[in-house]
């Protein structure tokens, strides 16, 4: 008798279309470039290069008499605008390349929402004049929200790309390890936020020597950003140790993809700690701040993908009736 498949319609895998997945990866790489350039804008003190005008630059669509800081900020705005267009294009292509209910579609939609929120937070920083040498607490709060949104943005883009590269049709998440994963992701975001505040302190109050920098960190009379600067290495070491414990805990029982991603997570964690130490010893030069941020974003992306592999439970092959 001919076999009858009992596979449900929602469990049928859709064909992976590599073009859409590859475009999503390209968008992710481009967004990372925009983020790193944004760090240069902040570290070079060019955030006020276009004044408190947004989206115009000093009231002009294209600056007619640009100065260096204006060019730096204007370039960031142009590349950020193109980032929004690229994320919208990713959504359209992903939508056309996947079936209804596909996880990649949901990730792409979330990416667009977060991209719009990213633009809003960036506009608020400019319009409220929380750029340049501004030392207000509200700037620190907005910057923290900006950083958290950025991590969620690149995470959603990475998942949209990954879920089109490795099909997730007919899969579900296991509940075991879920609580550890949530805490691990929150710890990673916490590392990023404290890092952003530390970088802001380095920008506003550049140290002249390592001894002076350490004295500022421990002085009760120091500005709040300098005292908060010490929080970053503490959170980074504890958070990183916890994340490594999670991936090590699931290493034996995890899939091959999870084990491979876990190794990259551990390598990136070691690189990040090393860059952090260099950042302190070398008094946070701009190029090193940019490098540190780039590897922090890479660490977050690979960590998110490894946790996805840790929690995923693929459906068994369809049973058949003889």
How would you characterize the overall build of this protein?
- By secondary structure, the protein is mainly alpha-helical.
- It folds into two domains: 17-169, no CATH class; 171-314.
- The chain has helices at residues 18-43, 68-97, 103-127, 137-165, 178-204, 210-218, 224-228, 231-249, 256-281, 286-311, and strands spanning 4-5, 171-173, 312-314, 320-321.
- A two-stranded antiparallel ribbon has the order 1-4.
- The longest helix is centred in the N-terminal third of the chain and has 30 residues, at 68-97.
- It is globular.
- The N and C termini lie close together (6 Å).
Can you give me a brief rundown of this structure?
The chain is mainly alpha-helical. Helices cover 69% and strands 3% of the residues.
Number of helices: 10
Main beta sheet strand tally, sense and closure: 2 strands, antiparallel
Shape: globular
Domain module tally: 2
- Unreliable stretches: 1-14, 315-322
Count of strand segments: 4
Q: DSSP strand (E) fraction?
A: under 5%
**Alpha carbon gap, first and last residue:** 6 Å
User: Helical percent range?
Assistant: 55-70%
Mean pLDDT: 87
Derived structural class: mainly alpha
Q: What Rg is obtained from the alpha carbons, in whole angstroms?
A: 22 Å
Q: Give, in order, the helices and strands.
A: EHHHHEHHHHHHEE
Q: Going across the biggest sheet, name each strand in turn.
A: 1-4
Tag the structure with descriptive keywords.
disordered C terminus; mainly alpha; 322 residues; 4 strands; disordered N terminus; two-stranded antiparallel sheet
């Amino acid at each position: 008798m001919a076999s009858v498949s009992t596979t449900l319609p929602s469990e049928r895998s859709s064909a992976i279309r590599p073009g859409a997945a590859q475009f999503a990866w390209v968008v992710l790489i481009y967004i990372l470039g925009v983020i790193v350039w944004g760090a240069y804008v902040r570290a070079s003190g060019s955030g006020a290069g276009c004044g408190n005008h947004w989206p115009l630059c000093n009231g002009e669509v294209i600056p007619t008499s640009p100065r260096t800081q204006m060019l730096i900020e204007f370039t960031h705005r142009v590349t950020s605008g193109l980032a929004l267009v690229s994320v919208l294009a990713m959504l359209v292509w992903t939508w056309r390349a996947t079936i209804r209910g596909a996880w990649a579609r949901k990730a792409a939609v979330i990416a667009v929402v977060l991209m719009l929120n990213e633009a809003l937070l960036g506009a608020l920083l400019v319009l409220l004049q929380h750029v340049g040498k501004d030392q207000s607490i509200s700037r620190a709060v907005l910057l923290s929200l900006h950083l958290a949104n950025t991590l969620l943005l690149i995470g959603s883009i990475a998942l949209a790309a990954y879920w089109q590269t490795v099909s997730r049709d007919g899969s579900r998440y296991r509940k075991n390890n879920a609580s550890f994963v949530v805490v691990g992701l929150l710890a990673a975001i916490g590392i990023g936020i404290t890092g952003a505040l530390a970088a802001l302190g380095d920008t506003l109050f550049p140290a002249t020597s390592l001894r002076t920098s350490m004295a500022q960190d421990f002085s009760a009379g120091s500005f709040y950003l300098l005292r908060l600067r010490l929080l970053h290495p503490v959170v980074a070491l504890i958070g990183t140790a916890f994340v490594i414990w999670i991936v090590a805990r699931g290493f034996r029982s995890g899939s091959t993809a999870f084990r491979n991603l876990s190794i990259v997570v551990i390598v990136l964690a070691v690189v990040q700690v090393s860059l952090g130490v260099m950042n302190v010893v070398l008094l946070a030069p701009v190029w090193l701040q940019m490098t540190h941020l780039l590897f922090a974003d890479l660490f977050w992306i690979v960590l998110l993908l490894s946790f996805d592999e840790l929690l995923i439970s693929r459906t068994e092959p369809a049973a058949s009736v003889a």
